[in-house]
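Hi V.,

Quick status before I head out on leave. The structure for the redesign project is tokenized and pasted below; the design run finished overnight.
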């Protein structure tokens, strides 16, 4: 087991680094955007297609010339690496244990994207402690400013880590399907994020539906319910059709945006990535990740102090 002192010193170093975070450096980056746009992909219900959507959206953004970092935040049951057919050198598990830095585990993936992989089957990381959140925050902040986008693949549900990663994002993308269970679980997720964390705007991608009209019905049903009962705004980002090639690609561990770029699903992903890029351009200042992570830190410590 790792010595506590090393772990503690990494956390302390991370905290110091956070305080000294240089906003200028972000602005000096030679890229399409001045600040890193942090976007989380989340869902109330599991298995709706978050990971497939994140991975392919990242590839689609990279194809447009953006630099994209993907954080696999499903810390207990990670599978971004599985979908991309890559073999991580190390995972967030080792970083959080203080055994290595985030730079040591960053991995280049097909499509020109960079991945922060997490471990699968590590029960102890199913819920992060405050010190681990701080370490993760400072490590991610240290490297993410090199990228135009940081896309976060969150776990499903309404657990504390789901809240943590969504609150850290400038834009929360709720992935839904047309199934009533997906809609009710998304409603529950949005309810918690709005009532307890003050989130007011949610983007929505409808995945795995047979037609555009079914996508519209699913979006409108959710939008009406959350607009009426929770007073939050929802933005439609597009839809990704049910496409047999998605499953085929997952079985082959090849992202559909690379394997079948003209498939219906890959074209749906391109539309989603175009909307994301548009949102990033429209909200340059709000996307500054240092602000969101700092806000998050205050939130998580404020909550603990109140307990
Ligand atoms: N557009 C689609 N067309 C066909 N099948 C799809 C589509 N999207 C997702 N699927 C199917 O749904 C499965 C789950 O997708 P994925 O792993 O991306 O979901 P997830 O939301 O990340 O799940 P979890 O909550 O477990 O992390 C895939 O393995 C695939 O078989
Ligand atoms: Mg997933």
């Amino acid at each position: 087991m790792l010595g506590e002192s090393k772990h503690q010193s990494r956390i302390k170093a991370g905290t110091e680094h956070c305080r000294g975070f240089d906003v200028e450096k972000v602005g000096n980056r030679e890229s399409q955007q001045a600040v890193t746009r942090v976007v989380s992909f989340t869902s109330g219900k599991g298995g709706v297609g978050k990971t497939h959507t994140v991975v392919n959206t990242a590839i689609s953004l990279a194809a447009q010339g953006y630099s994209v970092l993907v954080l696999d935040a499903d810390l207990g049951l990670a599978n971004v690496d599985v979908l991309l057919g890559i073999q991580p050198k190390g995972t967030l598990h080792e970083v959080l244990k203080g055994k290595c830095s985030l730079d040591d585990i960053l991995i280049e993936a097909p499509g020109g994207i960079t991945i922060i992989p997490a471990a699968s089957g590590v029960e102890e990381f199913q819920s992060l402690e405050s010190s681990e959140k701080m370490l993760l925050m400072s490590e991610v902040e240290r490297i993410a400013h090199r990228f135009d986008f940081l896309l976060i693949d969150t776990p499903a549900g309404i657990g504390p880590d789901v809240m943590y990663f969504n609150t850290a994002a400038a834009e929360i993308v709720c992935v839904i399907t047309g199934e009533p269970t997906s809609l009710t679980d998304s409603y529950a997720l949005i309810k918690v994020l709005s009532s307890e964390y003050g989130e007011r705007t949610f983007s929505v991608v409808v995945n795995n539906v047979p037609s555009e009209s079914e996508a519209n019905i699913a979006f409108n049903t959710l939008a009406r319910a959350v607009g009426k009962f929770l007073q939050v705004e929802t933005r439609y980002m597009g839809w990704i059709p049910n496409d047999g090639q998605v499953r085929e690609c997952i079985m082959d561990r090849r992202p559909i945006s690379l394997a079948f770029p003209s498939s219906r699903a890959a074209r749906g992903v391109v539309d989603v990535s175009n909307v994301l890029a548009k949102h990033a351009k429209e909200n340059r200042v709000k996307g500054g990740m240092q602000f969101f992570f700092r806000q998050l830190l205050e939130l998580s410590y404020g909550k603990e102090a109140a307990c």
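Above is the designed sequence. Residues 59 and 111 are 5 Å apart (CA to CA).

G. will cover questions while I'm gone.

Best,
W.
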